[in-house]
């Protein structure tokens, strides 16, 4: 039995999107439930999700472990895994990690673009690495079975997270910077260390992370996956983390980038030109387009086993080991 799993989305969740997930044969989606929110604000986001689970029980269910994804697949539903793109909801209290684990959070980024109490973000000029609190949080996340995500983190912080963690980590949504030199995309060094440590990379389809942006073709994207597989010694550490932000108004980008940390507008590049969501490539704009990836990978020359791994089986195996219990 093979799985279709998207390693990260931040959609404007709705009945329409939940229906499209199943129409795209998605068995599981890692859903972002916090960007800059504190503890209480993130609890309010959980309230929204509880109402959606109650309203659409035939379409979605919460997943606490890999086995829940199997249950969802058998029942014809999409499993939803909760994750943070920020450590902000744990505030400065490491004991809140266990509370969040009890509430179903299974993936947490140690930093989101900026310096956090735990690690350095990719937009900072200086990367000081994992902090004292960061080391403690990594150990506690390892104990609980919460995945460490370094998608928006800087180079040294990411390499130290791999080194300090007793479990494999994830970069849920990014691409190699040999292909496109976006601040968030990862170096050859990081990619090799991910593979060497049994960690995983989810390829992003967010246009700012793509070579040629919106104009990136499916063939170019799949060829990039092939080059990355060569660099990382195979496809076992590869998945999809589309970073799909479907149906959000452009104003949400301001929240994602600016939160409450600045009184001015700062998108990380010192410009207002990227104030809105970029248009998605024509081959991936919604969950119903997920099958296009399989077609593209076939055309690029991947075997069916490799394709099944990239499109979900690798994530499933990773979740099964990383969640712990």
How confident is the prediction overall: mean pLDDT? 95
Major beta-sheet overview: 6 strands, parallel
CATH superfamily: Metal-dependent hydrolases
User: What structural class do you assign from the helix and strand content?
Assistant: alpha/beta
Query: In one word, what is the shape?
Result: globular
Which fold name corresponds to the CATH topology?
A: TIM Barrel
Question: Termini, distance in Å?
Answer: 22 Å
> Which range does the strand content fall in?
5-15%
CATH architecture: Alpha-Beta Barrel
Structural overview:
By secondary structure, this protein is an alpha/beta fold. The chain has a single domain, classed as TIM Barrel. Helix content is about 40%, strand content about 10%. The protein is built from eleven helices and nine strands. The chain has helices spanning about 15-25, 40-55, 65-75, 95-100, 130-145, 155-165, 190-195, 220-230, 250-260, 290-300, 305-320, and strands spanning about 5-10, 30-35, 60, 80-85, 105-110, 145-150, 170, 200-205, 240. The strands form two sheets. Strands 1, 2, 3, 4, 5 and 6 form a six-stranded parallel sheet that branches. Strands 7-8-9 form a three-stranded parallel sheet. α8 (about 220-230) crosses α10 (about 290-300) and α10 packs across α11. The chain is globular.
